[in-house]
Fold this protein.
Amino acid sequence: MRTATAEALAWRVEVPESVAAAGWSGDGVLAVADLGGQVTLLDGRDGAVLGTGPAHPGGVHTLAWQPRGDVLATGGADGRVALRDAGRREHHVDLGGWVHALRWSPSGDRLAVGAGRDLVLLDPAGGVLARWDGQPSTVTDVVWSRDGSRVGAAAYGGLRWYAVARPAPEPVRTLDGGGSLLVARVSPDGRWVASGNQDASVHVWRLWSGEDAEMAGYPEKVDVLAFDRTGRWLANGGTTEVHLWDFSGAGPAGRAPRRLPGHDAQLSALAWQPTGDLLASAGRDGGLAVWAPATVTRRVPRLDLDAGARVTALAWSPDGARVAAGTREGAVLALCP
């Protein structure tokens, strides 16, 4: 049985429906997307409702704030991307397929979108810069190279990378493997890209040699993974334990993961602190934990809390002072670990 760390709970509020995604703006606004189709904007200090964001009938699947900018991008089951700036001006782009993933380039001047089986590149006002239709399956995630010169689509069979400056129909690099990819992340140092997969594996490639490795044998599909801010540690789910892979030196091949057994159910979300070394993890049973992996000796979390329902989203504030968790029942919690 979990022991609630009540003093770490800053606030708790409810949104209309199950939380699908959450993200903080640079000035402390927490945007929460729900499967009822609404985006709720909360004051990160106390959880007060500031207003609503773009609506997506059928459900909002994903959102992202523009780096060093003020544009909130959202996408959902209506096949549209909405771009809303601080002046509440909205641009809507109909892409014709469910929007499962979107991600800003490192500079914030381009937005990559996975819509159905298409990868689309937009500018901050919604102009279509490029699109690559007909990927092998639904685009489940999108990634950027560290310098923003390449954008990648995760789908069945691997990752296909395209040049951004002079878009051409064919990929400039294809990284095969991984089966049906569910989630992909590039390490902050730009050396690696990792995917979590339907076949209960984690696949990693070295950029750009293509040298790869696979960590297989998980009990269930791996649909959550995250690199820390240094690029040394990759955390992944697929089990009830957090697995930490060491990417220092030659990488994780031949190494065993560090295991953090703090959950009673399959992991459902992972997020590293952007300014420090804390790792937040959550499970399908509502278990929420915060770890300090670099100093863990007894493999116990520094914070252990019951969110009351499956945690579906985790997001750290930009200053790393708070981590927000959203649940399937529509609760949003902010913790100060």
